[in-house]
Specification:
The chain is α/β, with parallel strands linked by helices. It has 15 helices and 22 strands. The chain has two domains: 248 residues, Aldehyde Dehydrogenase, Chain A, domain 1; 187 residues, Aldehyde Dehydrogenase, Chain A, domain 2 (3-Layer(aba) Sandwich), CATH 3.40.309.10. Helices cover 42% and strands 21% of the residues. The longest helix has 25 residues. Helix 5 links the parallel strand 5 and strand 6. It starts with a strand and ends with a strand. The strands form six sheets. A seven-stranded mixed beta sheet has the order 12-13-14-11-10-16-17, with helices on both faces.
């Protein structure tokens, strides 16, 4: 059952009821009816509505961010950034929609023809809690700009944020049923995907949930995009400044307290840097301030769910049993909230649990590579592939190895992240499909060919 918990004393602030099957049916019906009129809306009108939405978000930024901190305990400065990032991405998509969705004329051989982009209808999206605003807006905004309407299931631990997003669309002047929050049990997922009025589904979530949604989408012949688990490698090949690289590594691992899709989760270090990297990285991790997420100086804050503590302890404990070595001690902190102290494991091998499973927390496994070829092989020794980072002073070396890495993107000496203007994707069991950029918006259309 969705609920908001007071992070200072674990008391439940409010419980929320799931909607019934009858209420769900009514929401789908209203969404489908809304689509008939929304699909005739002009690009200029849509753009203005989204610019109104951005203005309202920025005016209410602190209020919106506070909900992030209360519900998933994200540090307040990061919560503010989650809102501002969502606003800037919304502006970017709104400014580019007309160009991206314009008709394209062709005159080839003896044929004159054109390509037009038509909306699909009602889209069902499932979003995670780790960036409660951006995870929704990055999906909903391109969808709605492409004349579709959205039914959005947000994570159960951020119900206030989920309801607030729906309110924002209404405040901006959107028709009432263009965007609807679905406060539903996961047991209703199949009913939604099965419904003939639902035309597309996409999910950003953990692997098992993605397998269920993906199989249902195939079963009912619905297009889908899945963004699932990640084990992004940080590969140190060479450097003249180990201190700078340690600082970057710390930022990569501790982005949003480790609860970030594209933060580095396996540190693969060449043998010649291995001991020095561990020494300096351990010192830097041990000095992080663990405290209240509303405190501006806090660097480590509580995890979003109590269940994550159990999962994390299991991964660390099992890896130590497999002979990984702890150099920064793991433990639950004896405090209110769901704190877990930053943890470092070294001498990690590919068969260990911490190497094979995603650590969506403040845990850093460090792996030694004897040479560059082994480093790349270790990076690819995973069933996941979202982003990767290669650290090297050689552009030629980066060009060579970036082509060998099995991931959706590779960054040179930069923190892996996502931008609205870059295609964002993944390979292997991290899912299928691509997000962002022009292709993301066009995914949710019928690319119709008209021949004269």
């Amino acid at each position: 059952m969705p609920k908001t918990i007071n992070p200072s004393n674990w008391e439940v602030i409010e419980n929320y009821e799931y909607i019934s099957e009858n209420e769900l049916e009514e929401k789908i019906k209203l969404a489908n009816e809304c689509f008939q009129s929304w699909s005739q809306t002009s690009i200029s009108e849509k753009k203005q509505l989204f610019l109104n939405l951005v203005k309202i978000m920025l005016e209410q930024q602190e209020e919106l961010a506070k909900l992030n901190t209360i519900e998933m305990w994200m540090i307040f400065s990061w919560a503010l950034w989650d809102v501002s990032k969502s606003a800037s991405w919304t502006t970017y998509f709104a400014e580019h929609a007309e160009k991206w969705l314009a008709d394209i004329e062709f005159n080839e051989w003896w044929l004159q023809w054109k390509k037009i982009y038509e909306p699909l209808g009602v889209i069902f999206t499932i979003s995670p809690w780790n960036f409660p605003y951006n995870q929704v807006f990055r999906n909903a905004v391109p969808n709605i700009l492409a004349w579709n309407v959205v039914l959005s299931k947000h994570a159960s631990n951020v119900p206030q944020v989920a309801r607030k997003i729906e309110e924002l669309f209404l405040q901006a002047g959107f028709p009432k049923w263009v965007y609807q929050n679905l406060q539903i049990s996961t047991s209703l997922t199949e009913k939604i995907i099965w419904d003939f009025r639902i035309k597309w589904t996409n999910i950003t979530w953990w692997e098992n949930a993605g397998r269920v949604v993906g199989s249902l989408a195939w079963k009912y012949l619905k297009p889908s995009i899945l963004e699932l688990w990640w084990l992004d490698p940080f590969i140190l090949l060479d450097t003249k400044n180990i201190d700078e690289i340690v600082s970057l590594a710390l930022k990569w691992r501790m982005s949003s307290c480790g609860q970030k899709c594209n933060s580095s989760k396996r540190f693969i270090i060449l043998e010649k840097y291995y001991d020095e990297f561990i020494e300096k990285f351990t010192k830097a991790m041990s000095e992080l301030k663990i405290w209240d997420p509303f405190d501006k100086d806090t660097q480590v804050w509580p995890l979003a769910k109590e269940s994550m503590l159990d999962e994390l302890e299991n991964i660390v404990f099992e890896s130590v049993k497999q002979w990984a070595k702890l150099v920064l001690w793991w433990k639950r902190l004896d405090r209110k909230w769901f704190y877990f102290a930053p943890t470092i494991l070294v001498d990690v091998k590919p068969w260990m649990k911490v190497f094979e499973e995603e650590t969506f927390w403040p845990v850093a496994p460090i792996i030694k590579a004897k040479d560059e070829q082994e480093a790349i092989a270790l990076a690819n020794n995973s069933k996941y592939g979202l982003t990767s980072a290669i650290i090297t002073d050689s552009k030629e070396k980066f060009e060579k190895y970036s082509k060998m890495i099995e991931s959706g993107s590779v960054f040179l000496n930069k923190i892996p992240t996502s931008y609205p203007f870059l295609p964002y994707g993944w390979v292997k069991d991290s899912g299928y499909g691509r997000e962002l950029w022009e292709r993301w918006m066009k995914n949710f259309t019928n690319e119709k060919v008209i021949v004269y």
